[in-house]
Amino acid sequence: MLSFRKRLALAHVSVIVVVMAIAAFGSYLVFARNVHRELDAALLALAETEMGMLLSAGEGDTVIVHEAPPGPGAPSFVRLDRLVQIVDAEGRVLARSSNLGEAQLPIPPALRERLAAGETVFETLDGFGEEPTRMVSVPVPGRGASSLLAVQVAGSLDDVNRTVAMASVLFLILGGALLLALGAAGALITRRAFGAIDDVVQQAHRIGDANLGERLPHPGTNDEIGRLVDTLNAMLARIEQGMEAQRRFTADASHELRSPLSRLRTELELALRRPREPVAYVETLHSSLEEVESLTLLVEELLVLARLDAGQERDAAETVSLNVLAEEAVRRLEPMARERRLEISLEPAPPVAARVARGAASLALANLLDNALKFSPAGTTVRVSLRADVEVNEAVISVADSGPGIRGDELPHLFERFYRGATARSDEKTPGLGLGLALSQAVVHAHGGRIEAANEAGGGARFDMRLPLAR
């Protein structure tokens, strides 16, 4: 099977051949027709001149027949390039040029009938004389039917045919040269274009998991190949980022799973090392149960994230009242807030609805509120507000706290999986695995929204959950 490069070159040459053949054939026909028309025009002009001389003789005058001694052989074009003959209504020759010799221009009955009808007739005479001949027969007006005169003028087609033949050869030579030039130019352009593609293919073969940081060579132009290389390099960058995120995710997940498993194993080993009181076994079982619950929560969140990444966790979108959704979330988390001596304030707002799955929006909002409660100092208030941003067609739920806020270097990593800020890492009493914000962002992204984080002007952090606004 031919390669794409050869098929492209073959298609290029085929199109050039077809176009040039059509153009050359059309040019040949036009040129040949014009050359023949010029000969016909010259013959007609001479016939009209002879006819004018006849008409100037007057109606009653007699046409004088110039008797020329018959020359030997066939008519000749040696001295004169035109043969002239004047005939009457019966086809008798009244006058003729001396170069006709013994020959006579044909005047068959069918031609006489057309001349009698006043028609000017052009003919090509086959087998007349030494050369191919073109003849025009012109009726002389103003004569009676019995004395009808017609002027016949003939000329050689040899020069015309030679000119057309030379033009055909010239067209063939020019066409062949142009075909070779265009074919060579097409082959050069194709070789250069596919040479750049071959370089890209060879470099792409060398890039693997171990050297994803390398990029394809850019041709230095902003044409289609340059844009293709830019697109492939951007794709490689995304793949590199994805692989790096996957490595970090695997490492973080392994670390988060190893810690509770190590604690669980240690407690069980200590419990089995020597006999203990039943109360000690009960305490060990309670502690082990807490570790198992933590592991279960971690595995469930990892499964949800995996399904979201695979596009399998997206529920059908519906029109959800965010006012009702916020009230339900605040009511569920009020016991936790009271336990931590905090208050959750839901600011009054006009009705706001969004197109989202109710469960996804509820989960994301609950995680944002839980995160705000974790980092808010006792005696402060977590504020929840709603609004409709009609300019960008989004419904916004804002959750603001009075905690320490977010450090500037932590903002870009806030929604990464297993990422925990400096405050969370320094305070061992702050629960969490670093998956809540990542899970919320993934859930909201799956439904066409996003979560944005910023610091409040008076202190504390604010999270804005933006969802598609329902009309």
Question: Topology, please?
Answer:
Layout: H1 4-56, E1 82-87, E2 93-96, H2 109-116, E3 121-125, E4 133-139, E5 150-156, H3 158-206, H4 224-273, H5 278-309, E6 318-321, H6 322-339, E7 343-346, E8 353-356, H7 358-375, E9 381-389, E10 394-400, H8 422-426, H9 436-446, E11 450-455, E12 461-468
Parallel strand pairs: 7-9
Antiparallel strand pairs: 1-2, 1-5, 3-4, 4-5, 6-8, 9-10, 10-12, 11-12
Helix pairs in contact: 1-3, 4-5, 5-9, 6-7, 7-9
Task: Please characterize this protein's 3D structure.
The protein is elongated. A hairpin with a 5-residue loop joins strand 1 (82-87) and strand 2 (93-96). Strands 2-1-5-4-3 form a five-stranded antiparallel sheet. It has nine helices and twelve strands. The longest helix has 53 residues, at 4-56. 52% of the residues lie in helices and 15% in strands. The chain is an alpha+beta fold. The chain starts with a helix and ends with a strand.
Write a concise synopsis of the structure shown:
With 471 residues, the chain is α+β, with helices and mostly antiparallel strands. Helix content is 52%, strand content 15%. Strand 1 and strand 2 (93-96) form a beta hairpin.
